[in-house]
Amino acid sequence: MKTAVLTKVFPTRSHTVAAQGGVAASLGNSTEDNWHWHMYDTVKGSDWLGDQDAIEFMCKKANEVVVELEHYGMPFDRTDDGKIYQRPFGGHSMNYGQAPVMRSCAAADRTGHAMLHALYQRNVRANTQFFVEWMALDLIRDADGDVLGVTAMEMETGEVSIFHAKATIFATGGAGRIYFSSTNAFINTGDGVGMAARAGVPLEDMEFWQFHPTGVAGAGVLITEGVRGEGGILRNSAGERFMERYAPNLKDLASRDVVSRAMTTEINEGRGCGPDKDHVLLDITHLAPENIMKRLPGIREISIQFAGIDPIKAPIPVVPTCHYQMGGIPTNYKGQVVVPQGENNNAPVRGFYAAGECACASVHGANRLGTNSLLDLLVFGKSAGETVVEDFERGDLSLKPLPEDAADASLARLARLENQKNGESVHEVRLAMQRTMQKHAGVFRFNTLLKEGVDAILAVAERAKNTEIADKSQVWNTARMEALELDNLIEVAKATMISAEARKESRGAHVRDDALDNAETPNGRDDANWLKHTLWYSEDNRLAYKPVNLKPMSDDVEPIALAKRTY
Amino acid sequence: MTKRTVQFKIYRYDPDKDDKPYMQDISVELEAADKKLLDAITRLKVKDDTLSFRRSCREGVCGSDAMNINGKNGLACLTDVDSLEQPITLRPLPGLPVIRDLIVDMTQFFKQYHSITPYLINNEPAPERERLQTPEEREELNGLYECILCACCSTSCPSFWWNPDKFVGPAGLLAAYRFIADTRDQATSERLDNLEDPYRLFRCHTIMNCVDVCPKNLNPTRAIGKIKDMMLRRAI
Q1: What is the value of ipTM here, to two decimals?
Q2: Across the strands, what pairs with A313?
Q3: Is A137 helix (H, G, I), strand (E, B) or coil?
Q4: Pair A47, A521: CB distance under 8 Å
């Protein structure tokens, strides 16, 4: 079997490199732990929208994949007895919510960097064939709906090629750049998600976006939750540790959606900090400087660089910032992309697999726990690879003939850009999209704003059809790249707004003003009507729904029963 | 900072239309929130979308936006724009072939990185759990593993300019020492053999440009010195 890895940037520049705080695994190196507790925390964190079979699979596999990385050479920090160092993290608990647990396996606050480099190094050893700085453009499907590969453009030459494949795995990441304020890299434009949507694959649960509590105010750069794991405290303008009021048990280490809403409430009620009262403070001045230098050296650099503050001496100004896409291309625990077909809600698309942030397995449901994203990409990335091998060996995959029009969609998009006259700049349209998303689908959601948001985002989507670029060069044309990326972002933005407007309840990261806490709907969550996954189709913006899998994979564990979510 | 106008002088070359490279004089008005050089050139790109450069994370961890800034290599995203003397002169990283504008062909740089077997070698059967390493042993990797492969160091090194095909360069040698220093790695002897050559290691003349420019404050010269020491000790 021959493998080609296409990548828009050199492999170690992908955004996994920016992950900081750690990867979850119930190794139990510093506190007692087991995968049952991890599973419970993940299901509860997901506000019961996560599929319990996939969650069981992920939590059970965690130790194996983390240890495997250690064997590859990943430089984890160490405990005194030489094991992998673990720190507490938001929403992770021992004994079903009782107290924080040390589950996040960390390499200082550079875990993603250490992980991505170790994985790349392993690929150097395996002599993997990379196509570096190739941008995938469109998914190729034939009349049966099977996936036959992608079209892609080499940045250096502008040449478009077809990658004709028996199996195609997307590990293309999220689209955090649909929002104005984001912790995400410039390259996080949801390319795979957009490609799948244009090719007729529905997108699952796209209304659920994670706003990370601690982005640097103004700059948006991420400050890891590991800061709170190491003892950091959020304070309002009165210096109060306000999380005690919102989450009496886990306090600053409550789930991210809970902390982000608490911060936003503090700011909205006039207890924000700074001259404009528009942020809160993350305080670690009480920690020992040597501990900060040892465990949080990267965030100290970031604070100095982007907030002009040394956190050893003064608290860091932070604000909830768009961070992670819980939804994505629907997959099962094997990494197969699954779509409704007749009676079957989860029929695999032959030849198509996805893993990581671009996929929706769904393990994060309505809210992801910190450190579960690195775990997700390890477990399901590996699972997808193994499934391809199995499917291949079973004879399920063959090199089907390419349809004659395999490259037409991509060539038409490029020709449109080449010939566009009197269009708008990519920058203007992208900014309009980002401001629309920020205003209409933020931390708190409002019925009227969502309704207006749907019209607004559809209007922006029309404008995106007429973007014009001045750069017509074939060589490393970044203007053209940004225009093509905008097509992908727009699919994600539409999916998000339309799915969010339709979901008339509050759950996890999706909290609306017309679905509030009461006896029938705790926290505004309406299980009778909305305990289901959204599926959005790009064609006609059609919505469909499918049930959540509340049944674990094995008899090793009972289903985690529905309950009101409190921390 | 308030709004202000910043003057640039930028190396421009598009092989599709330019016979030869030229320096473009251009200015841009910055918004109050624009603090870093990357903010400024992103603003500039709104004005002229043909200006080409790589960028991604904008927080100094992906290593994409290395360039030569007023004569010194650095990351655009970690450079305060207001600290720079104007006109701000931007050139591609020196010593590598230019593809377009500020984008260089990094093939030679990565070839050298790949040449040092940049992965952990341990041929014992993998244990069921993690291999143990004391906190002190792990600390030996600090200052080594954080490299982001931006190439600021190697492309500021005269020895690398003269012999990019023969001298591994500071980034590659830092990575080599990262594995030598790792107690889990068992290939120290082979790694030293791999560098035992008049060029690969010994072309480092401790000019220390690498240390001066590293945006992560790493010290390749020290790592190279340690490899040389080990080489020496092994010889006697």
Answers
A1: 0.98
A2: none
A3: strand
A4: no
pLDDT band at B1 (very low <50, low <70, confident <90, very high): low
**Hey, are the CB atoms on B138 and A110 less than 8 Å from each other?**
no
Query: Which residues pair with residue A139 across a beta bridge?
Result: A150
CA-nearest residue of chain B to A472? B50
Residues 6+ apart with CB under 8 A from A209: A179, A322, A323, A324, A325, A326, A441, A496, A509
**Which of A122, A111, A106, A22 minimizes the C-alpha distance to A72?**
A122
Six-digit token string for A169? 């795995």
Chain B residues with CB under 8 Å of A222 CB are 59
User: What is d(CA A461, CA A490) in angstroms, rounded to the nearest whole number?
Assistant: 6
Nearest to A84 by CA among A24, A11, A166: A24
A186–B61 C-beta distance less than 8 A: no
What does the pLDDT look like over A92-118, one tens digit per residue?
999 999 999 999 999 999 999 999 999
- Which residues lie below 8 Å from residue B181, measured CB to CB, with a gap of 6+? B140, B141, B144, B226
CA distance A533 to A536: 10
Its pTM stands at: 0.97
Of A118, A218, A473, the CB nearest to B14: A473
The residue count of chain B comes to 236
In A, minimum Cα distance to B52 occurs at A478
Phi, psi (deg, nearest 5) at residue A359: -100, 160
Q: How far is the CA of A359 from the CAs of A139, A322, A457, in angstroms? A: 15, 18, 23
Q: Which residues pair with A463 in a beta bridge?
A: none
Contact in structure between A360 and A81 (CB atoms under 8 Å): no
pLDDT surpassing 90 at residue A203: yes
Q: Is A256 a catalytic residue?
A: yes
Q: What are phi and psi of A331, to 5 degrees?
A: -135, 165
Whole-angstrom Cα distance, residue A212 to residue A257?
8
* The one-letter amino acid at A267: I
Closest CB to A471: pick one of B49, B119, B179. Answer: B49
Measured CA to CA in angstroms, residue A27 lies from A34, A38, A84, A321, A401 at distances of 7, 11, 8, 30, 47
CA distances for A146 relative to A167, A343, A383, A400, B72, angstroms: 10, 19, 20, 9, 52
Give, in order, the Cα–Cα distances in Å from A162 to each of A138, A410, A414, A487.
10, 10, 15, 20
